[in-house]
Amino acid sequence: MIRAYLFALDPTEAQADAMASHCGATRVAYNWCLARVKANWSQRAAEQTYGLTGDQLTPWVATSAYSLRKAWNAAKDEVAPWWKQNSKEAYASGCANLAAALANRTAGRAKMPRFKSKRTARMSCKFTTGRFGLVRDRRHVQLPVIGVVRTGESTRKLARKIDAGTARIRSATLSYQRGRWHVSFSVDLPDAAPEERTGGGVVGVDLGISHLATLSTGEQVPNQRRLDAELSNLRRAERACARRRGPDRRTGVAPSNRWKKARARADRIHTRVANLRRDDTHQFTTRLVREFDTIVIEDLHVAGMLRNRRLARHIAGVSWAEIRRQLTYKTERAGVRLVVADRWFASSKTCSECGTAKAKLPLNERVFACLACGIILDRDENAARNLAAAAVDTGELRRELPDGSDVRRTCSHASQSHRHGKSPHRTQRHHRKVVAR
């Protein structure tokens, strides 16, 4: 199995300039190869308008990583006479990135790649050969040409595996993200067998906003609201940026040094919020995987929910999609069963005690009261119980679906009987579609 180990770097000013130069070299090679490919395709399209076909057309330019790198090496003395300042892997990384982008376009997974901007493109560079890896003091890393760079944290977790012979570093990716330089090592590790698990049980997880999640056990995981806690500081930092002279691409005005410092302060607040939010999510998902054998979650349409301008910031702050992504790979690694309930499963409107479904349940009703059996409990806990039951009951469930219910009917004869004037207030069968991941 292949895993990535990400370490924050603490470079000197000269090393930071060298890192930026390597990332810029990757971008230059990428843009040059892309311009060459587009010129070839445009030439062929123009020749076809004159009636040329077959061998009369200009030959295709090969778009493999090897071909692009070979073409770059032939033209680098003219295109970039300063190429010796950086490692050859920087230019090879740009050619490989374009080859992968063009392959994704051919396979229909992406659109035509675009040129990378010097101002907005993320700085990144990958090393696959040369001297790179960990230094024995476990506080520095080695990078080609750049040299030995101090890390912001200890590398002992990866160093112990390398010393034991159970890990091998395949490549190193240098990147500038969240206001800091980082290096990510791609490490080849042996496939770990899932641990023997007994008695973990089943848990239903209902994600929310007021609480990060409500479990079928009755536990409510608090939402720390990391962004809300920093909003006042963030507003003050953003106002300071607005008062400084920022960059203007239309007039070519360069940003002032005071604007750069103010922008750095605002970026640090964003970075802190993102790190705290990521840590909360990892702790929550890791605890679920350790304590339970089967985890049931909902298939939420997060992109659609974000269109609600009143709740968009709060929905984005709880990272529902990130929670599902982490649960997916953590359960696979630990041998835990992950069940994703169907998006149309009425977990909130259905009574977890008797199975009766309500026609409507507004969001402002936070307590679920069943008129059939009389049970009264928290709305989110009721939904979590229904999700936990979905992991066991995968067949048909009898549900009360009165007319006007938003629950999708799966029985075709139900709608036919309603059109013939029969009473819609009767018990129908509602299917729970469960997808095991």
Automatic annotation (TrEMBL):
The keyword Cell membrane does not apply. Residues 1-44 form the Transposase putative helix-turn-helix domain. Residues 320-387 form the Cas12f1-like TNB domain. Residues 416-437 have a biased composition (Basic residues). The keyword DNA-binding applies. Keywords: DNA recombination, DNA-binding, Metal-binding, Transposition, Zinc. Pfam families: Cas12f1-like_TNB, HTH_OrfB_IS605, OrfB_IS605. Residues 401-437 are annotated as: Disordered. InterPro entries: Cas12f1-like_TNB (IPR010095), RNA-guided_DNA_endo/Transpos (IPR051399), RNA-guided_DNA_endonuclease (IPR053470), Transposase (IPR001959), Transposase_put_HTH (IPR021027). Residues 186-308 form the Probable transposase IS891/IS1136/IS1341 domain. GO terms for molecular function: DNA binding; metal ion binding. GO terms for biological process: DNA recombination; transposition. In the N-terminal section; belongs to the transposase 2 family. In the C-terminal section; belongs to the transposase 35 family. PANTHER family: RNA-GUIDED DNA ENDONUCLEASE RV2885C-RELATED, TRANSPOSASE. This is Putative transposase.
